[in-house]
Amino acid sequence: MIRLEKINKSYGGKFKLEDFDLQIDRGKFVSLLGPNGAGKTTIIRTIMGLLTPDSGRVYIEGEQYTKDSTEIKSKLGLVSQHLNLDKELTIYQNMVFAGRLYKLDKAYMKERIEYLFEKFGLQDHRKKKVGQLSGGMKRKLMIAKAIIHEPKVLFLDEPTVGIDLVSRKEIWTELIRLKKEGTTILLTTHYIDEAENLSDEVILIDNAKLYSQSKPSQLIDNLGKVTLQWRNSDYEEKYSYHRDLESAREEGQNLQDNFTIRNTTLEDVFYNFTKKKVI
């Protein structure tokens, strides 16, 4: 569905993307993980045609994509990390505005709005102005706007930042439903549990380069399924990773400090990637 070939993009002589290759298959839910400044948002903006790469090519469904590719643009949806709602308009008016931007037929637009209001629990709030909404409802509305035209690819740039856990999990449910309906989804997030729970694949990037693209379970297996965790005499938290429980217990018995043995998570993978580059 998405292919990037040798993408280069720099600002002020510093690479944001360097000889960057990427392939995402149709219908997959893929998360981009990396520290701040790694290039996650640059990737999304480049694929969307909002940034022009210095060199390289972007393909959507096998067709080369540029900022002038109007037909391809109609297949894409974007939820940015910054709120892009009109605070003076109601929820319903915001949706109508989005539908008109995509030049939807009026009858179809109305049908889509009612469907999305029901799915996102917005039907009883349609007359509220955006300024009256909670953070979670604003995020749901942004996603509803982004998919009003039934895009084949949905880009989510920190879609749940700053909202409560309940709202986050409600949004997860809708994203999983979209994926099951065949939408290809590319997510950036700082919530590692979000990536672990939702993703078919996780992409680790840093310093403008792609380091790994694998299933979350494979990344965990590569590091070690079992984690031994303890604090040393200087109160520093330490970790070691093991293939099995027996190996972790054996090392733990040799420690003078209290320790914990638990299953390794994607957060451990991310910590090791950003701090030690062991993957």
UniProtKB/TrEMBL annotation:
Keyword annotations from UniProtKB, A to Z: ATP-binding, Nucleotide-binding, Transport
Pfam families per UniProt: ABC_tran
Gene3D superfamilies the record matches: P-loop containing nucleotide triphosphate hydrolases
Domain of life: Bacteria
Domain (ABC transporter): residue spans on this chain: 2-232
GO molecular function terms attached to this record: ATP binding; ATP hydrolysis activity
UniProt similarity note: Belongs to the ABC transporter superfamily.
Protein's recorded name: ABC-2 type transport system ATP-binding protein
